[in-house]
## 1
Amino acid sequence: MSLLVQRLLPRRALTELAGRAASTRGGALTTWAIRRFIARYGVDMAEAAEPDPAAYPTFNDFFTRALRPEARPICSEALACWACPVDGAISQFGRIESESGEEIFQAKGHTYSTVELLGGNAALAEPFRAGHFATLYLSPRDYHRIHMPVAGTLTRMLHVPGDLYSVNPATAAALPRLFARNERVVCLFGTALGPFALVLVGAAIVGSMQTVWHGVVNPPRPGGVREWQYLPGQIELARGAEMGRFLLGSTVVLLWPAAPGGRALRFNPDWTPGRAIRMGEPMATLD
């Protein structure tokens, strides 16, 4: 869908309508829609814990389906490895650059700042100055649960209101500051390997975003930033544990400091923009 068409459409109304439709128990109609989706996008149901399309009472239940436990092995903790948190494709990754140390590369000719991404909060962005980022795109066919790259303790969560443009590669290349424009849920963690941020970016037709500790974060969609702070040890999640999910697809952005835990971060040498990725594969290591 072109950027011009997206600008003309009532994106929020369409997203809310899609969310209601996807949560409706439609019986045979729901099963028909799921089968059509599987055929259209080539979804591999052999990986699903429940491979029968008729077993899902709503489209959302299908879209956030669990995988068989052995389908996604997690990279070894002994290697100080950060596991990829999602299935999808690499949009971009690398250093957070510019003189300010705040600019994240989006696509050719486009950047956005860590401060913008984190809801305009410069104090939250400061630990990631001149650090590292990875932007991971989840297409409709992908598994849509999000997992922990390492064991961590949640410190804060923010819901940042915003627009609802598509986050596909074409829109990312055409629309400046896309990931700082769209609605997002920011999750900040402390770990034995240093802090990191995991940002769930909303998009057109994404009915809601959820976390395992909070449930549905949006809707509601109020006009201002909402923030939750957590006590030390209140929310602890293991490496590979589910931390959230999208109800219809979107993008995840990760941020790291320049030297997490005082060590150099090295991205997987096999990574390149556009490459397909799977949850659990090595994303980065610390030297």
## 2
Amino acid sequence: MAAKGGILFLNPMAGSFIGADESELRAKAAEEGFRVVEITPKVDVPATVRSALDAGYRSFIVAGGDGSIHHVVQALAGTEGVLGIVPIGTVNHAARDLELPLTWREAFDVAIHGEVRQIDTGRVNGIHFLNSVMVGIYPTITEYRERFRSTHSKWRAYMLALRLAMRQFRHVTLVLELGGRVETLRTQLFVVSINAYDLTQAGIAAPKIALDDGHLTIYSFGFMSRMQFIRAAAKFFRGKIEEVEGFRRIRTPKLRIDVARPKLRVSIDGEVRDLAPPLQIAAAPASLLVRASRPAGA
């Protein structure tokens, strides 16, 4: 029998939380029987989740951003554990895709009482992801952004990181095996998402069209100059990325990526990692339980 309560993982360094909010959240969690675990470099989050699952707990809430959620999902995917989200991060992709409230009190109510939904995850070399795997310039942006977060606002840190990454303007040469075909691609940005984005929406974070399609979507560009890349980014922000010459979108259940180097730097749900090639990426349909909406009539 499942134990009552659960664990609330709190990232105290998340982008949009203040001390009074944190104290109130801790009190609300205690009222609902949730133990609060702070996410720090010393905490093995997946191991903590697995231990709680073994003890009979089935409810897990993450108060943080997409990176914090990513660590919890590694142990929750494929189990009876249910994920609740209190979005207090920088972009909050997962919360937006699930159409959760972006105010923490309302989101906490959904995380406790919302209806359970089954959604897809993706996997890259055994690592689960909810949003995307990015190769090329984006991991560099992410690294610099995290360096600047301690001394700048989240958007100021992002803009500084973008400026430095554009100075370097790194590209990668990928060998792609997809649907029985092999091709080589030289590019500054290569994205693999679980399910597909609605790229006609203006803004910095495109929403997902579905969360249970059971497929990956590849977004790729040919090699571009800096000016071409800037123009492509401007079109993305206006919801017109498909007008960019060389842009491709491919739907597939899996793909293989190889490179002529011992490690490939990737961003997985905003977390930067060096992975040994080849990258084996596949959809994992209906692999995660989440609380995603208020009960009917609430």
## 3
Amino acid sequence: MVEELSKKYTVTSILKILKVARSSYYRWLKGFTKHKNEHEDLIIEICKETKYRNGHRKIKAILKRQYNIELNRNTVQRIMQKNHIQCKVKPKRKWKSQGESEVIAPNLLNRDFTASKPNEKWVTDIKYIQYGSEPLYLSTIMDLYNNEIVAYKLYNHQQVPLVIDTLDEALTKRNNPEGIIIHTDQGSVYTSYSYQNALKKNHLVSSMSRRGNCWDNAVIESFHSNLKTEGFQYIKFNSISILNVISKIDQYMSHYYEGRIQEKLGCSHSKGIWNESSLIVVFYICLI
């Protein structure tokens, strides 16, 4: 067809209409066997020896390291595709919430970590605490008005009851305010129907970070990072008792509330809205 049409049109325009690459056309025209890469047999042999476990990048590296042959990775890839010797690719795990169906809320906060009054914007997250004899999970709610920790819970699991109990504690302390924007990540506990229904029941507004973007919830992420750095300095993982872990978190929260200087408050102390320690430690030891 190309030969017949080439009497009237250029080969390039014909191949463009047919969506055929020029290189493929001329290689076909002259025959594949005549244009066999000189290293093709070696690449096939390497793939057989490695049980077809390696992709074209690793095969390229083996050629260079063991045989001092440097080929473009695209050339290696074409040879492997031609001979159907590509490595098996592990299918990517589809991201989704565990358990219940997910509800994704828009990013209403949009990295605006300022608030003009208390109970306008809250941020919350869960932090893994691994310094005790068993792992614990700290759920914290912070008011962006003055970065005060409104409530926090420490459980030995990170299931939905952890975040709902933290929310209930915060609402009780603040006399059940309404219309607060509560910003979270897209963790399965926050996207669950149970948590979202709890927000609606209390007339609260859900906001979520973009998937995999910790900067969208940077303030609470930074707080948890400081807690681990300052509160557990020089302590190795799994090296102290659970009671010591609880005590250190209690001490850090007290220090954060009573004495830690806040740049956001003009380098003054963070003490503000609450009048009592907000730590209520509820964790279920597997004796139940």
